[in-house]
């Protein structure tokens, strides 16, 4: 191979990452839309109960920011799947590229999007409270959990970012599976279903899934939570990397 | 809420229609402005939250306040009958009225369920009927809802007749936010918080009327109570 300057892998990854980040600015616009949708869903599907206190009827509406979080998690999954599609991966041909630089730049891109999505989801909880104040003007606000402490916001953003990263990595693996061959993509859920039916029924699979998610989600130490999340995300991404490692550049 | 959704959909539809009709294309710059605008909104909202009027907040009470409220609930009537309705911790005088009267007989009309009316003779003969409503806190799930519950009585005074009117019962609506979902498990481990006990305490009330020493109650209703300073 002839070249004027020796290309460094990290320089290529950096250039690819910067280019993809700028090229996919629409992804951030969709994140804004998803954030607002999550807030609207949280306000719409708030739980409500009422009690009678003598002649006075009290109603208590409870609003949670879970919808904001899970809608954003879904966004992270979909965006990661899209990242493996041809339209997105063709951008790599703008640069000298191989499958390592392609996957590494995608990994950094996913991390960036996850941090942005996690921060948006955490701050969305505050915006939700602000919007609720005006959407329900006749309601008295219970002075609890209204103001989120800076620590709560930081931890919320960190935890949400980890959820986004996990969802992103799963989506990326799914996309790579589909890319590796439609047969494999078709067979994987069939194998899972067959395993569930033959190996003791769906309850075992459900229990297995719950123990895997519980392994991460029920962690009470922030450091361990981050370590477990990053480890799992790395493992899933490693699988996706292995799947595309032997494919030609044009098929990545 | 449905109206808001419909408005949102209409706004979205109109925007799409206008963009299509005017041939406006969404440029990178538009997207950047959208992103920056939303980011600023998100970053400003924690500070904006602190600027909201606090009148709409229903405070959370602690165990000591709840205990005081329970005692006050029990003791209010007894202390009123001793002529000292505000001597118990947790009792608040929520409203006062003053009516000038001429004549030596006062008629008290109307009876409101669960509202004892206690009458005290003042030492002076100032020709003023003083009425005060005392109440103890109403607490639901450790939330002090006293301020949001409408006052149960209205008073009118004419021709030496004091009429107690019970207004139409209204509802009170509350909004409660759940803790930040993703951070909850980790923060609870750092700083354990108890679950708010399900307590329902309806505050007690007393309408306390002070009449001049030379005024008598005309045809007193059996439900009217009189201060007994010699009592226990």
List the helices and strands and how they pair.
The complex is a heterodimer of chains A (252) and B (232).
Chain A: H1 9-23, H2 25-44, E1 47-53, E2 56-63, H3 66-83, H4 86-89, H5 99-135, E3 140-142, H6 150-180, H7 182-198, H8 202-217, H9 222-245
Antiparallel strand pairs in A: 1-2
Helix pairs in contact in A: 1-5, 2-3, 2-5, 3-5, 3-6, 5-6, 5-9, 6-7, 6-9, 7-8
Chain B: H1 2-22, H2 28-49, E1 57-58, H3 63-81, E2 92-100, E3 105-109, E4 117-121, E5 128-135, E6 139-140, E7 143-144, E8 154-158, E9 161-165, E10 171-177, H4 181-190, E11 200-201, E12 205-211, E13 216-217, E14 224-226
Task: Please name the defining characteristics of this protein.
heterodimer; A: 252 residues; mainly alpha; 9 helices; B: 232 residues; alpha/beta; four-stranded mixed β-sheet; 14 strands
Q: Could you characterize the architecture of this molecule?
A:
The complex is a heterodimer of chains A (252) and B (232). A two-stranded antiparallel sheet of chain A has the order 1-2. Chain A has 9 helices and 3 strands. In chain A, helix 5 (99-135) packs across helix 9. In chain A, a hairpin with a 2-residue loop joins strand 1 (47-53) and strand 2 (56-63). Helix content of chain A is 72%, strand content 7%. Chain A has helices spanning 9-23, 25-44, 66-83, 86-89, 99-135, 150-180, 182-198, 202-217, 222-245; strands spanning 47-53, 56-63, 140-142. Chain B folds into 2 domains: 2-48; 63-169 and 196-226, no CATH class. Chain B has a 5-stranded mixed β-sheet, with helices on one face. Chain B has a 4-stranded mixed β-sheet with strand order 8-9-3-13, with no helix packed on it. Chain B has a 3-stranded antiparallel β-sheet with strand order 7-6-11, with helices on one face. The termini of chain B are far apart. At the A-B interface, helix 2, strand 2, helix 5, strand 3 and helix 6 of A face helix 1, helix 2, strand 1, strand 10 and helix 4 of B.
Task: Walk across the major sheet of chain B and give the strand order.
Answer: 2-5-12-4-14
Count of beta strands of chain B: 14
Percent helix of chain B, as a range, is: 25-40%
Largest sheet of chain A: 2 strands, antiparallel
What would the principal axes of the Cα set say about the shape of chain B?
elongated
Order of helices and strands of chain B: HHEHEEEEEEEEEHEEEE
| SS elements, strand count of chain A | 3
The number of helical elements of chain A comes to: 9
Structural class of chain A: mainly alpha
The two chains with the largest interface, and their residue counts, are: A-B, 67 and 58 residues
Number of domains of chain B: 2
Q: Over the alpha carbons, how many angstroms does the gyration radius of chain A reach?
A: 22 Å
Strand content of chain A: 5-15%
Shape of chain A: globular
Give the biggest beta sheet of chain B.
5 strands, mixed
- Which consecutive residue ranges of chain B, at least 5 long each, have pLDDT under 50? none
Contiguous low-pLDDT stretches of chain A (5 residues minimum) are none
Spatial separation of the terminal alpha carbons of chain A: 22 Å
Q: Give the helices and strands of chain A as they follow along the chain.
A: HHEEHHHEHHHH
């Amino acid at each position: 191979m002839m070249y004027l300057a020796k290309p460094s892998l990290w320089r290529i990854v950096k250039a690819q990452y910067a280019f993809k980040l700028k090229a996919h600015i629409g992804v951030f616009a969709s994140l804004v839309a998803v954030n607002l949708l999550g807030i609207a869903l949280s306000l719409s599907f708030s739980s409500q109960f009422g009690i009678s206190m003598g002649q006075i009827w009290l109603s208590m509406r409870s609003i949670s920011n879970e919808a904001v979080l899970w809608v954003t998690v879904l966004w992270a999954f979909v965006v990661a799947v899209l990242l493996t599609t041809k339209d997105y991966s063709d951008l790599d041909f703008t640069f000298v590229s191989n499958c390592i630089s392609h996957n590494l730049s995608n990994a950094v891109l996913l991390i960036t999007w996850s941090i942005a999505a996690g921060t948006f989801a955490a701050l969305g909880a505050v915006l939700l409270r602000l919007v609720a104040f005006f959407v329900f003007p006749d309601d008295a606000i219970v002075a609890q959990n209204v103001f989120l402490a800076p620590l709560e916001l930081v931890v919320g953003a960190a935890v949400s970012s980890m959820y986004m990263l996990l969802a992103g990595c799963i989506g990326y693996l799914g996309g790579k599976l589909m890319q590796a061959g439609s047969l494999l993509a078709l067979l994987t859920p069939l194998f899972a279903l067959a395993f569930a039916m033959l190996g003791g029924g769906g309850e075992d699979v459900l229990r297995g899934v719950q123990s895997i998610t519980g392994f991460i989600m029920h962690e009470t130490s922030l450091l361990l939570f981050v370590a477990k999340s990053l480890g799992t995300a790395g493992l899933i991404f490693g699988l996706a990397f292995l799947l595309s490692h032997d494919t030609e550049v044009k098929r990545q | 809420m449905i109206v808001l959704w419909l408005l949102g959909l209409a706004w979205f539809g109109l925007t799409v229609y206008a963009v299509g009709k005017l041939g406006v294309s969404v440029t990178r710059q538009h997207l950047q402005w959208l992103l920056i605008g939303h980011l600023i909104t998100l970053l400003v909202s924690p500070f904006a939250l602190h600027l909201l009027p606090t009148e709409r907040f229903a405070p959370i009470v602690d165990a000591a306040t709840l205990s005081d409220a329970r005692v006050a609930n029990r003791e209010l009537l007894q202390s009123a009958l001793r002529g000292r309705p505000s001597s118990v911790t947790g009792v608040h005088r929520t409203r006062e009225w003053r009516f000038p009267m001429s004549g030596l007989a006062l008629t008290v009309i109307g009876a409101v369920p669960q509202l004892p009316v206690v009458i005290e003779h003042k030492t002076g003969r100032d020709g003023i009927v003083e009425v005060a409503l005392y109440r103890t806190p109403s607490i639901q799930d450790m939330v002090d809802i006293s301020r949001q519950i409408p006052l149960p009585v209205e008073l009118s005074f004419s021709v030496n007749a004091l009429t107690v009117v019970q207004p139409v019962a209204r509802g009170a609506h509350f909004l409660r936010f759940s803790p930040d979902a993703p951070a909850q498990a980790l923060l609870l481990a750092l700083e354990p918080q108890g679950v708010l006990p399900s307590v329902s305490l309806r505050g007690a009330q007393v309408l306390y009327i002070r009449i001049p020493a030379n005024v008598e109650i005309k045809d007193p209703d059996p439900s009217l109570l009189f201060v007994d300073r010699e009592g226990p």
